[in-house]
Design brief:
364 residues; alpha+beta; Beta-lactamase; 11 helices; 15% strand
């Protein structure tokens, strides 16, 4: 039970219980998140970035066999490998199905940098006075980032869910980790309240347009309601690699410092109630049960439904896989390990300073 609660969609699938990731709720309204539609990153041959082309092809073969729509790899901001299936292209728009959560985490960092939100442990009752006497007023920004607000129940497929503003606290904030859409949606609402602008407008100006992304759309319950920051956020699949570049470079995008350099490391701190996760980011150092470990301990994953982006800061590599779902026999470390082990400058953990070099030669 503990294993399943750590990554429910993946492990229920492994046991033959398939979560309908393609079942997206019907939203009443959508709003545009304007981008600046800048040119794509330059393309470079794998060998110029010290990557083994054969290893990339093996990763592509695995992705293709696993019902993927796209596999795109970048290094140092250059596109070094790309493969597409099911009629998609570099600029095909996809529903984020959860990837959008990390955007609200980045936007929160921007709001803190502008003093619209004071600090990560600020109770939301300070930001919304009407909640100051309610139990939800004790929830902190960090609780929302780390999925430990105590609000509501997990998202239940296509069934109608309680609007986030009407939810009650069912567990003391900070004592329960629960994968649900209420926490990121609440952050989107708080950014709207503190900035005096819609979440879509703030996200566009603070993050989305500044990284050169194309126009995206954001789902709402109704014309003026709380935004759905994860499922319902539709954007060009290639634009997620721009987001990956921000995360790989501690909030900097090609020389533009979007966020304070300490904010992304803050997002990578393990959640108190689930060390496998940071703020809407899965930390690869802890691995997944019954899955071979990742080749690098600093790898982390931004994911939603069948969409996955593996990021390795030490190698400046971003790997994006998109798809409607993950097959039951999915091996989450297969693609990133093929890419990392194919990097000519990659130093395996066993060979790093302070390691037992006998581990490199078994039985010696």
């Amino acid at each position: 039970m503990l294993v399943i609660s750590g990554d429910p969609k993946h492990w229920l699938g492994r046991f033959g219980v398939h979560v309908q990731s393609g079942c997206v709720p019907s939203y009443r309204a959508h709003v545009v998140v304007p981008g600046s539609n800048q040119a794509a990153a330059p393309r470079e041959k794998p060998e110029e970035e010290q990557l083994n082309e054969a290893a990339l092809e093996k990763a592509g073969e695995y992705a293709g066999a696993q019902k993927s729509k796209a596999l795109i790899v970048t290094r140092h901001g250059y596109i070094v490998y790309e493969k597409y299936w099911q009629g998609t292209t570099f600029d095909t728009a996809v529903d984020s199905r959860g990837l959008g959560r990390v955007l609200v985490a980045l936007a929160t960092g921007a709001a803190i940098g502008e003093r619209k939100i004071a600090w990560p442990d600020e109770p939301v009752g300070y930001l919304v006075p009407a909640w100051s006497q309610e139990s939800k007023g004790a929830i902190t920004i960090r609780n929302l980032l780390q999925m430990s607000s105590g609000l509501g129940q997990p998202f239940s497929g296509c069934a109608p869910s309680t609007p986030v503003l009407e939810m009650t606290v069912e567990a003391r904030p900070g004592t329960r980790w629960l994968d649900q859409d209420a926490d990121p949606d609440m952050l989107g609402y708080l950014i709207h309240k503190t900035s005096g602008r819609s979440y879509a407008s703030y996200l566009s100006e603070a993050i989305w347009a500044r990284i050169g992304a194309g126009d995206a759309t954001l789902a709402l319950d109704s014309d003026d309601a709380v935004p759905h920051v994860d499922a319902g956020f539709t954007a060009r699949q290639s634009d997620w690699l721009r987001v990956g570049e921000v995360l790989l470079n501690n909030g900097n995008f090609r020389g533009d410092e979007l966020l304070h350099p300490r904010w992304v490391p803050e997002l990578l701190k393990p959640a108190l109630m689930n060390e496998r996760y940071g703020s809407y980011i899965r930390l690869g150092a802890h691995g997944l049960p019954d899955v071979p470990p990742y080749a690098s301990k600093d790898l982390f994953v931004v994911e939603g439904g069948g969409n996955k982006m593996w990021l390795i800061p030490s190698l400046q590599i971003a790997i994006l896989r998109t798809g409607d779902e993950l097959p039951a026999d999915w091996d989450d470390s297969r693609i990133p390990n093929l890419v990392m082990n194919g990097a000519k400058d990659f130093v395996p953990a066993a060979a790093r300073p302070g390691s037992d070099l006998r581990l490199l030669v078994p039985n010696h």
